[in-house]
Amino acid sequence: MVTEKIAAKINPWHVAQQQFDLAAERLHLDPGLRKVLREPQRELTVHFPVKMDDGTVQVFTGYRVQHNLGRGPAKGGIRYHQDVSLDEVKALAMWMTWKCAVVGIPFGGGKGGVIVDPKKLSMREVEGLTRRYATEISILIGPERDIPAPDVNTTSQTMAWIMDTYSMHVGHTVPAVVTGKPIPLGGSEGRNEATAQGAVYTLIDAANHLGMDITHSRVAVQGFGNAGAIAAQLMHAQGSTIIAVSDSTGGIFKAEGFDPNAVLAWKKEHHTVCGFPGTKDITNAELLEVDCDILIPAALENQITAENAPRIKARLIGEAANGPTTPEADDILYKAGKFVIPDILCNAGGVTVSYFEWVQDLERDFWDVAHVNEKLHRIMTRAFSSTLEMSLTEKVNMRTAAYLLAVQRVADATSVRGLYP
Ligand code: GLU
Description:
Number of strands: 12
Shape: globular
Number of domains: 2
Bound molecules: glutamic acid
């Protein structure tokens, strides 16, 4: 509860700009370029009606932000959540720009969101909302312009509706307008698991660097959606002991560990991880502070703050979520000798396999899962080692190191293209 109240007060856009400023300062970025990269290129706000099941009309508010298009089309997910705001979407769009640059895929950064709790809507209402939102943002999206993907509370089904709506408007099927689609519609093998798989690749690299044995590690995961649940399953398969997980309703803890596959089955039936037999219920705030070796925040922004950072026990923190740690908390963790794999590196597996999906759609040629994961592994390991090297030579934490790499790449692309007109 305390964490929730603090999180709600911190503006993610201010956090994103603060992180950027830190890197821009260190890079002695040209002042003009700095002003350009500090703001999003485009921000679209839409208010649109949806006919509800009871016959009434409700008006929803949504956004699509394109932060930077210097290195390619905008890329980034769409989030459905009651707390979405323009500032949150701006931050998420900026983080996508840096994320794509860290792993070296040819996209700029974008993000979308709708203010809605989709759990309170029927399937038909969510479909209506999605199709109308897709129509409203169709002035921005397109396979060469801006390519959405799933994010918090959106799925491959959401992407199928967006792809269908866009295709109906242009009169032919355009699979490459979104990624994270169902496989029969041109989705990629391995995309559903990609965010978690990429995070696990970076955790293995980090554990090797720190001399930690991943098979004897105790792991806590905050968030049990696409990123968190699959990360828990993959870590369990690696031999780690999963001792705590949580979702938006609360968390569970058991010092001896439990099988995350069984928790997933429990959650499918009960719509919560809480009450899973043999475990003790804990809060989301408590989960972050449990005595563990590896902590994987895989939920929302601003979870690790100056308030709770001193009490984090994990030696290694892998940010599967976007923006889970504030800059003040970063300093505290770094001084305490904690190793944080920053979001723009740790969770970049999702957008990397989105890039593979987009390439496969454009080429009409599809790869098997072994090929996808081999390419993903190579990209994640390369990005991890360049970031680690930067962190060691510049004597900065891994986040600042990743920013130094990313911001420089985007700055180079932007300046070599030149200022139009
Ligand atoms: N929503 C994911 C992210 O935050 C994936 C974005 C994408 O695949 O475009 O990275």
